[in-house]
Amino acid sequence: MSWIGELAGGAPPPRYVDDSADKVADPNIPGRMVSNKSANRPFLAYKEYRDQQEALHNAWVEKRKARDAKIARGEKVGPLEPDPTAVEEVGVLGLLKFLVIVLLCICLAGKFLTGSYTWDYQSRWLQLKTYWPKNQRLFSEAFLAEYNGEGIKPTYLAIDGDVYDVSKGKAYQLGGSYHHFVGVDAARAFATGCFQTHRTHDIRGLSEQEMNSLQHWKKFYAEHKDYIKVGKVNHPPIDPSSPIPEHCDPKKAKAAQAAQDQAEKKKRKKTEDAHDDL
């Protein structure tokens, strides 16, 4: 409806221009001409590419036939070059190379944007010492006490026999809130919360709740990204007749004593019943 605009005083529509001189043969339909405009050029270029690939493949086929004929005549021939048009399949090695390149790009981008190859993500599984740990050693209680954070040696603590390097934890350094845990196996304190009076590995008589608490802390140190297990501590055997450490909470101490008395009472009754049966 461009003629309406022209009647209203507007510009006349563009004149028809015969562009047949700028047309080329349609590569897919014989006898048909198509415009050589920019929108059609990718299709025209693709057809040209396919023709080149077909010519290369036919030339390779001729080379292979000539080589096979020489072999049939008993002549010596060299190895046949691969088909230049063959599509290469991506194997396991190619996939691994691709993944390595992607991982490398991600690490370099993290270093450029955040200053960290791991994008500031901290995990024990990203540390080499998790996979190549130092040789673990056996500590005596006296030797473990030397790693108390007060000298040049690293800071160690033990929990239920396992020794961990906690040097990266500020709370374990001299004056820190958890300094009383270092240089000793304070497994009982982890379970009961009696940090000053239960700095011992003696876990006799602990309640189920306290044992669960101890297991929680053991898992905490085993999975912590900064604390690495360095060995085990060799404790002397505990005399079963020695008294169980008293709880720092009077109510819990009373309940523990009652439970211990009840256990001893059952033990004596069992012994007496065994004598009566004789």
Provide the fold topology.
Blueprint (H helix, E strand, L loop, with lengths): L1 H6 L15 E3 L7 E3 L5 H32 L19 H23 L13 H4 L5 E4 H5 L10 E4 L2 E4 L21 H6 L15 H16 L4 E7 L15 H28 L1
Keyword list:
43% helix; 3 domains; elongated; two-stranded antiparallel sheet; Cytochrome b5 heme-binding domain-containing protein; Cyt_B5-like_heme/steroid-bd; Cyt_B5-like_heme/steroid_sf; alpha+beta; 6 strands; Flavocytochrome B2, Chain A, domain 1; 4-stranded mixed beta sheet; MAPR/NEUFC/NENF-like
Give structural notes.
- The protein has 3 domains: 21-88; 92-121; 133-245, Flavocytochrome B2, Chain A, domain 1 (Roll), CATH 3.10.120.
- Helices cover 43% and strands 9% of the residues.
- It contains 8 helices and 6 strands; from the N terminus they run H-E-E-H-H-H-E-H-E-E-H-H-E-H.
- The longest helix has 32 residues, at 41-72.
- The termini are far apart.
- The model has no long low-confidence stretch (mean pLDDT 81).
Using the CA coordinates, give the radius of gyration. 42 Å
Instruction: Tell me the overall shape.
Output: elongated
CATH superfamily heading of the largest domain: Cytochrome b5-like heme/steroid binding domain
Please, how many helices? 8
How many extended strands? Answer: 6
CATH class call of the largest domain: Alpha Beta
* Total number of domains: 3
Q: What is the helix fraction of residues, given as a range?
A: 40-55%
Multimer state = single chain
